[in-house]
Amino acid sequence: MKRIILIAILTLGLSVQSQNLSNTGSGPAKTLTLKDAINYALENKADAKKSKLQVENSEYQIQEVRSRALPQISANGSLTYNPVLQTTVIDGSAFGQPGTTIQASFGQKWSSTAGVSLTQAIFDQSVFTGLKAARSTREFYLINNQLTEEQVIERVANNYYQVYVQRQKLTVIDSTFKNTTKVKDIIKGQFDNGLAKKIDLDRILVKISNINTMRQQVLNAVQIQENALKFYMGMPIEIQIEIPQTAFEVSPQSLSEIPDTTNRTEYLLMKKQEELLTYQKKAIEAGYYPTLSLSAGYNYIGQGPKMPIGAKPSDGVYWSDFSSIGLNLRVPIFTGFSTRAKVRQADVDLRSLKVGIDDTKLALDLAFANAKTQIDNSLITINNQKDNAQLAKEVLDNTRNNYIQGLASLTDLLDAENSLTEAQNNYTSAILEYKLAEIQLIKSKGELKSLLNN
């Protein structure tokens, strides 16, 4: 009787857990296709948002560099008080007193100056190079934004399929529990009529208890995997999601054409880095070139024994203006080999990046070859496991009938159930391996955004 109560509790527990899985959180579950998940992630994931902000920031960087080629205008002002005026010794012959020395104090106790100054670069090689580099920087961030979006798509797709696998395992366990419960009912009836042994009933009760424990573990795995998917989407954890079964159809991929690696975002990004390092080297080499600039200024000065601000000539304060216009030429002659050292460092960085570009191209080619191999193997495995699962189901049906008729042992029946569960899980895992390989194949072709069309 206790065992019967235990079975009822386990059955009720499985039903409640199934309901909790679909009803946890607020509101109904949100049906989520792969396309929906990717679009949500591109709009809400922090990585995608920050990448878009970098593109926006690149426009401001261009404006900053462009400002160096525009006139620089500034206003200035000063107010000075001289408690002690400097005394200057002058030869008296300049004032008709040869052979004497005159001590004179020049200046006023107070002076105030206000003016405007302008500087305009006429020739500065570093400015010209900086403008070109700024435009390349914008292109760099645009490519980087595309790469970030592809990385978001890849992570979301991988986790999306893994959620499916965990849910499928849960479905398999529920089916196994249902079948095992039917066997338990048969054995219970036989035991009550004296046609079955007590040990057989005990074994089936232990089997049901183990199934319940396994289901709880898978249930936890489902929740953890769903939370991971929501994280990679930037979705609040409390939102419940439901993944439609139709999203996991296995469709053959085109494996004949070899993708052009030079069109991959990773490769394009490194080539743009190479361009930026080239400009960086040219900007340093600009230190060898002379610079020419125009400067101009207009100022107004007031001096007197009193504070000049607001004072008049009647107060002993006099105001006057002055201005200047000039050309400034700077020709570098010797910098202690500093510029040469910086140029050589930039050249090493450039050569190092070129090595990295070659290695990246090789890695991308390898990724395509591996994905192609995995696709081929996964298709074979899927077909084999699908047939194996069907055969295992037929074996279980036959074994159950034989057990009822007394032609098979309980051990044979339990082994047949285990074989079916294992075959179904293997089939599900084979589909996951195929879908993950499919993502890598699509990625190797540079077509991850095509998932948005599914």
From TrEMBL:
Keyword annotations of the record: Cell outer membrane, Coiled coil, Membrane, Signal, Transmembrane, Transmembrane beta strand, Transport
InterPro entries: OMP_efflux, TolC-like
Pfam family, one: OEP
GO CC terms of this entry: cell outer membrane; efflux pump complex
SUPFAM superfamilies listed in its UniProt record: Outer membrane efflux proteins (OEP) (SSF56954)
The keyword Signal belongs to this UniProt entry's keyword annotation: yes
Example of a GO MF term: porin activity
Subcellular location: Cell outer membrane
Signal sequence segment: 1-18
UniProt feature coiled coil, ranges: 382-433
Similarity remark: Belongs to the outer membrane factor (OMF) (TC 1.B.17) family.
Record's protein name: Outer membrane protein TolC
Origin organism lineage: Bacteria, Pseudomonadati, Bacteroidota, Flavobacteriia, Flavobacteriales
